[in-house]
Amino acid sequence: MQRCPECGELGIPEHSVLASGDAIQEVGLEKARRFSRCRECWALFALESIDTLTPADPDALGDRVVFTLPPWKGDSAESQFELSWDVVDFFYEELRDQKHLDPLRALIAELRPTYERKLRAGSSASSLVLSRSKVHGLREGQSHLAFHPEPDGQVRVEGILDGTKHRFGPVPCRLAARIRRAIETLATLPIE
Predict the structure, then answer these.
(1) What are the average pLDDT values for consecutive 10-residue runs of the chain, which has 192 residues?
(2) DSSP calls for 126-158
(3) Which domain holds residue 171?
(4) Dist CA 68 CA 159 (whole Å)
(5) Distance of alpha carbon 129 from alpha carbon 118, whole angstroms
(6) Helix boundaries (H) for the chain
(7) What's the pTM value of the predicted model, to 2 decimals?
(8) 184 & 107 share domain
(9) Cis before 170 (ω within 30)
(10) How many domains does the chain have?
């Protein structure tokens, strides 16, 4: 995260930018203006380069907002994975009032430094989904782990690891032995 010029907090994502869906449709992804939004104060900035944030009109994005890779990042699997963690962070930030998700948010924060370049993060309803897929979305039978939050702060874990179905829980939502082993196994599988 970078410091926000508006509020001074670490709130500007480094691995993703925002673009207007309408602008992409009109001029294409390469020519559409890129923006960044602070996670802390919600200020919007036009992104001219990796180091240049210019305050932007909040209406500049329009209603259809797309997360995409910054122009200075390549389209590698690792870049796609990092982008996915930024998107998941924003998704769960918008659910901040749902306190039963606090343990899942804490798990995401604990996982990210180690796995943001190894795993794709996604969401389905309020569940966290991890995979080795370079592209968004899972195919049938593709290796993944889904963490389904329970009202008491625990999670149920289910998924497929190299063709074998896995299901356990509810268990405490933290990087303890069973969850750690499942995630480490997933991280060693080929990128699909």
Answers:
(1) 90 87 85 88 86 87 85 83 91 89 94 95 93 87 94 94 94 93 96 88
(2) TEEEEE--SSSS--TT--EEEEEE-TTSEEEEE
(3) 77-188
(4) 27
(5) 14
(6) 21-27, 77-93, 102-115, 177-188
(7) 0.83
(8) yes
(9) yes
(10) 2
